[in-house]
Design brief:
The complex is a heterodimer of chains A (about 375) and B (about 160).
Chain A lengths: L1 E3 L1 H31 L4 H32 L3 H97 L7 H27 L5 E4 H18 L3 E5 L6 E4 L1 H18 L5 E9 L2 E8 L6 H5 L16 H11 L3 E7 L3 E9 L15
Parallel strand pairs in A: 3-5
Antiparallel strand pairs in A: 2-4, 5-6, 6-8, 7-8
Chain B lengths: L8 H12 L13 H27 L6 H29 L5 E2 L8 E3 L3 H9 L3 H23 L5
Antiparallel strand pairs in B: 1-2
The chains are: A alpha+beta (about 375), B mainly alpha (about 160).
Chain lengths: ~375, ~160
């Protein structure tokens, strides 16, 4: 069977021209996409893919059109000289397209990792913000209570004296004494001031709303439930040794969990697979003791000294604020935190909280001056 | 302080031997004519792999349901098909009997005497723009759909 090659020639020429036009149109469209969102990974990929395809379409189509025109006009020899270059450029564009795709493959992986890190950072940031808000509330309430008690403490005695004497004078004065009415007014106003002092004192009690009667062991158990999978994933053994009786105290269990989680996370990071993390609670006289021990890499003394210094961190990307918050939380519970560490042996964080610890007693507050 | 370079007696004797019994150095190898064709065919192959990879990525990430990605998927599929066709076309061209093309009526009016599958494949491969142009059209439509989506214009 004999078929004419004229249709294929026409298809080749028209198709080549159309390929150039379409490739340029694609490039224009993708440039619009990229101009509006220059950091969009997909647009970047499509821009480079379209650019490579445009280079391919132009080089190939120009080659094909030139071939037909040169041969038709009797310049076959020129085409024969140009042909290897045209073929080589076409091959180059194929490799370019493949390279763009390979590059994008790696680019995409990095982009996804960055997106995941960004999401994680946003979560951490939100947690820190919430934690900070809680701490601010707690500090504000404490400050308010201190102020109230300071003022009350400062004016209680003078008011008592004035009130007492005014009432005494009222009893001694004769009923028809003209100053009696004035004394009545003094006594009434003093009474009002005494009531105000009582209200100020009651403000200190409000702080208790932030704390509730909770068991420290439950805080530890809740933390273990949350972080258990993370510990297991790193193939670290977790040992919990809780005091058999409830360690009830006035605590903010949410904040204590945040603090404990941070300490345990530090332990997870420091402990290699096969190591052990121990969580222990004890009653030590009037104190409840919470111990977090790990068999991790430990820290040298100079690092331990600075561990609670704001913005001091040994982690890449660490904020240096985690342990500062932890200490603040512990101190808000009227507790103390200590860290003991030995390089290559591990670290022990010890938190002592007063048994049945409550907000500071009236006697604990410094008079406001 | 830098160590003084020393040559072991074995290496010295080897170097001496090579000096006295020289051979042709094959440092640069020039290949024959097929090298260009092979490089070109390899180019088609990697182009095909790249397009298949993009299709697979779109499929894997479940983006094919969106209009832009659906069209991009089809565009890449067409580019892949074009590579297969041209790959076969180049082989067919190499195997084509030189006498199969009749040029007596001029370049424009050439005819092809098809006697076997190879001849038919050669003819079909010469019509490769029937795949390449639609591939570019679908790519353009994909980009236009992405742009419309970006601008918040409703519709495909």
């Amino acid at each position: 069977m004999i078929w004419s090659l004229t249709p294929s020639l026409l298809v080749d020429m028209v198709g080549s021209a159309l390929a150039i036009i379409l490739a340029v149109l694609c490039l224009g469209k993708v440039r619009q996409l990229l101009r509006q969102e220059p950091e969009n990974a997909l647009w970047i990929f499509l821009f480079w893919l379209s650019t490579a395809l445009a280079v391919f379409a132009i080089s190939r189509s120009v080659g094909h059109i030139a071939q037909h025109l040169l041969i038709l006009t009797g310049y076959r020899h020129i085409w024969l000289a140009l042909s290897p270059f045209s073929g080589a450029i076409n091959t180059f564009t194929f490799i370019l397209i493949a390279s763009v795709t390979v590059f994008f493959h790696h680019f995409q992986r990095i982009y996804h990792r960055m997106s995941a890190n960004h999401a994680e950072l946003a979560t951490v940031s939100r947690d820190i913000l919430n934690l900070n808000r809680d701490l601010e509330t707690m500090v504000m309430e404490r400050t308010m209570a201190e102020m109230a008690l300071g003022v009350a403490d400062g004016i209680r005695n003078p008011i008592c004296v004035i009130g007492g004497f005014s009432r005494l004078l009222l009893r001694r004065l004769s009923p028809d004494d003209p100053t009696r009415e004035w004394l009545h007014t003094i006594a009434a106003e003093t009474k009002r001031m005494e009531e105000m002092v009582a209200k100020f004192e009651s403000l200190a009690q409000k702080r208790e709303y932030f704390f509730s009667q909770d068991d420290l062991n439950q805080v530890v158990q809740a933390t273990v439930e949350t972080l258990g999978p993370e510990i297991a994933a790193k193939k670290i053994a977790l040992r919990t040794d809780l005091w058999p009786e409830p360690l009830i105290g006035k605590i903010n269990s949410h904040l204590l969990r945040v603090a404990l989680s941070h300490i345990v996370r530090n332990a997870i990071e420091a402990t290699p697979p096969g190591g052990t993390i121990t969580l222990m609670t004890r009653r030590e006289g009037e104190l409840s003791r919470l111990l977090v021990q790990d068999t991790g890499r430990g820290m040298p003394p100079d690092v331990v000294e600075q561990i609670f210094t704001p913005f001091y961190t040994t982690k890449i990307g660490g904020s240096g604020l985690g342990l500062v918050f932890v200490r603040q939380i512990v101190e808000e519970h009227r507790g103390t935190i200590t860290v003991q560490s030995q390089v290559s042996k591990g670290t022990t964080v010890s938190i002592d909280l007063p048994q049945r610890f409550s907000p500071r007693q009236d006697s604990d507050f410094r008079p406001f001056s | 302080m830098m160590r003084k370079a020393e040559m072991s007696p074995f290496l010295f004797l080897l170097a001496l031997g090579l000096m006295f019994w020289p051979r042709v150095a094959w440092a640069i190898q020039t290949h024959g004519d097929p090298e260009g064709l092979y490089a070109h065919q390899l180019g088609h192959f990697v182009f095909l792999i790249a397009m298949v990879y993009v299709c697979w990525q779109i499929w894997r990430q479940g983006f094919q349901a969106k209009p832009g990605f659906t069209r991009l998927f089809w565009a890449c599929l067409l580019f892949g098909a074009w590579n297969i066709l041209t790959f076969i076309g180049h082989i067919a061209e190499e195997r084509l009997d030189p006498g199969a093309i009749d040029r007596q009526a001029g370049y424009f009016w050439r005819t092809l005497h098809i006697t076997d599958l190879n001849g038919l494949l050669y003819y079909l491969a010469k019509l490769d723009h029937l795949i390449l142009v639609p591939a570019f059209v679908v790519l353009y439509l994909a980009l236009r759909a992405f742009r419309r989506q970006q601008l918040g214009v409703p519709g495909p």
